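Quick illustration, no need to memorize.
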Amino acid sequence: MTYLQTIATNGRITHDITPCGWDCGNGYSKLHTPQGQILIPSYFKSLSDSDKNDYESLGNGALVEYLQGDRTDLVNSKWLIGETAEIYFKQSFGRIVDDWRNKITYGLQMLLGAIALVPRQQTYNLLVVASLHDSQAFSSDLKRALQGNHTVKFDGKDIVNIYVNCQVTEEGVGALLISRAPGQQKIALIDLGHGTTITSIFEGNKLLQNSRKIDTVGVHHLCEAIANNLQTRRHLNKPANPHLIREGLAKNFSYGTTAWEFSEIYSDELKGWLASCLVPAWKHLQSRADDLDAVYLVGGGAALPNVASIAARQGIATIQNSQIVNVQGLLKLAISHQK
C-alpha cells in the first residue's frame, strides 16, 4: 500500500533540504517526509544487461535506472522495487527478509524506489535519518551505501538528481520519541517485525548494553505457516502466496481477488507463532521487569488482529500506528538535526 498524507511537524523546515525518516524493513520499507509517507513491500529485482524488455512501474512499486553518481558499482544498472518486482518476477524477485545484509546491500535501491513514488521533482536534497538493528556495528556500512550524489531515471523517462546526507540511529529510537509518556525513562521495546523479533531496553534514548535480543522469527514466518497450512492447501489445491496472505491480514483475511478468507487458519497458527516470538521476548525482560517504566510492543506484527489484546494480558502496551511509528520518529529526528 502506498499512501501520502499531510502531517504536522514540530520544528523549522529548511526549504533547500528535505528531512526524511527512512526505515528499510524486512517486510515493508517506509519513507517519511514532511509532505507525507510512502509504504512499499521490501521486494527488489536487479535486471541484467541482456534483459531488453520494456518494464514499467506497476502496482505499489517502481522502475529505477542508476545513470551516474557516487555508487559507481550501480552505474548503468536497473532494478524493480516493491510490487513491480513481484508482478514481473513472481518466482525470482528478491526480498529484504531473505538476508539481514540486504538492508545495506539493497538499501539505496529501496530508498530510490520509494523516492520514485513521492511527488516528482528534478532535484532532491535529502537529510535522511535511518535506523538499523545494530547501528554501532553497521551504521558506517549503511551510510556508505546511501550517501552521496545519485542521478537516476524513474519509469524510463524522468531524470532526477538526488543528494543524500545520511545519519543512522538504533532501531526503535524513533518509536520512543513518539510514544514515551512524560516521566518514563527506562523503556523496553518488543519489535515484532517481518523477519525478526527485536527486544531492547532503552535508558532515555540510549540502548542499554547487552539488553538487545534478536530472534529470527517474524510476521514472515506466520504468513508462511498460513500459506502452507493443510487447510490452505486443501482449499487452494496448492500452498498460498505468502505475499497475498500478508496483504490479506490487513483486509479482513481476504485472499487476493478470491472469495476465500483464512481467519480460522490465522487463529490456529497465531498461538504457536506468538509462542515462538513474543513469549521468548517477554521472558528475556523478566530479570529487569521490576526496573522498567513500561514495555511497548511495536512493528507490523503488533498491528495484527488479536495480538494487542494478547500482549496486554502480560502488561505489554501496543503503540498506536505500530508499523510506522518508528519512521515517524526518525522524521522528527531529521527535522531536529536541521536546527
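The chain has a mean pLDDT of 92.
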